[in-house]
Amino acid sequence: MLAWFTPERKTWLFQVNPALKFVVFFALLLITLFNQNFPFAVWQAVFYGMLFYLFSGYSIRKLALLSIPLLISFLSSALTLIMFGKGDTVLWQWYLIKISEESIQHGLLLGSKSLSFGFVGFTFLLTIQPVLFFYAMMQQFRMPSKYAYSFIASFRLIPAVTEELQIRRNALKVRNIQFSRGVKGVYERLQMYTVPLFAESIRRAQRIAVAMEAKQYQMGAARTYYYTTHYSRMDTVFVIVMITVIATALSLAFI
Questions:
Q1: How far apart are CA 193 and CA 195, in angstroms?
Q2: Distance CA 159, CA 58 (A)
Q3: Residue from 75, 65, 64, 81 nearest 115 by CA
Q4: What are phi and psi of 164, to 5 degrees?
Q5: Neighbouring-strand partners of residue 122
Q6: 41 and 109 in contact (C-beta within 8 Å)?
Q7: Which residues contact 124 (CB under 8 A, 6 or more apart)?
Q8: Does 91 share its domain with 173?
């Protein structure tokens, strides 16, 4: 599963400091959230989509699969507001469904915002390494190490939990365990899988907590880091590009 998120090539976005990328992308999301100008929202979605499809570094097949939930989000949010939104200039009405010029504009505005959120979020997730992100948050933004290392430990546990699930599935297959059909079978599967996985997760979390306490992560003192992160020239390029994107989208929206 984790291999699926391995890019084919590392673009310039991979060279940007992860903490800085998070702050800039969060600012872009805030701009998208509070924006009420329809042309500006459309141009935002266009430019963020170009960023996602051209510079994420993943294959067309993977990007197409990731585009499916974005398309569903766009259609669901836009069509819901178009068919059930309020407006004075009614174009077509049938019982509860009322389509107006205002509802169409508001629906497309909301749909464009959904696309922008999806493009920015996926671009961020696909172009960072979670471990380096939390190291950057500790070093550049002074995040307390006890929180950062807790998140890092959580990410490290994902492969272990996946492996434990596979081992459990193989063990049940070897023992020729047969499940009932219907709701009873779902309950039996939950009982066979969740109870041992939950118990093992508690034991693993307890061991990690003891290890973190032994290494005095709760003290908040200055620490050394195995991975060091810093700002580079590419960070300046990234900020300039993002400012240019917003300025270009604004200028095109008010032409």
A1: 6
A2: 22
A3: 75
A4: -65, -40
A5: none
A6: yes
A7: 21, 22, 25
A8: no
Cα dist from 96 to 82, 83, 84, 87, 111, whole Å = 12, 8, 7, 13, 21
DSSP string, 94-109: ETTEEEEHHHHHHHHH
CA angle 39, 43, 46 (to 5 degrees): 145
| Tokens coding 243 | 């400012």
The answer as to whether 139 is a domain residue is no
The verdict on 129 and 249 lying in the same domain is: yes
Residue 226, in any domain of the structure = no
Q: Is residue 228 situated within a structural domain?
A: no
> Sorting pLDDT into bands at 50, 70 and 90, what band is 3?
low
Rounded to whole angstroms, the Cα distance separating 99 from 55 reads: 38
Handedness of CA 229, 231, 237, 239 (dihedral sign): positive
CA 8 to centroid of chain Cα atoms: 19
**Are residues 101 and 165 both part of a single domain?**
no
Total-model pTM? 0.81
Q: Which two tokens stand for residue 201?
A: 């997760």
- Out of 33-37, 124-128, 174-178, 234-238, pick the least confident: 174-178
Biggest CA pair distance of the chain? 69
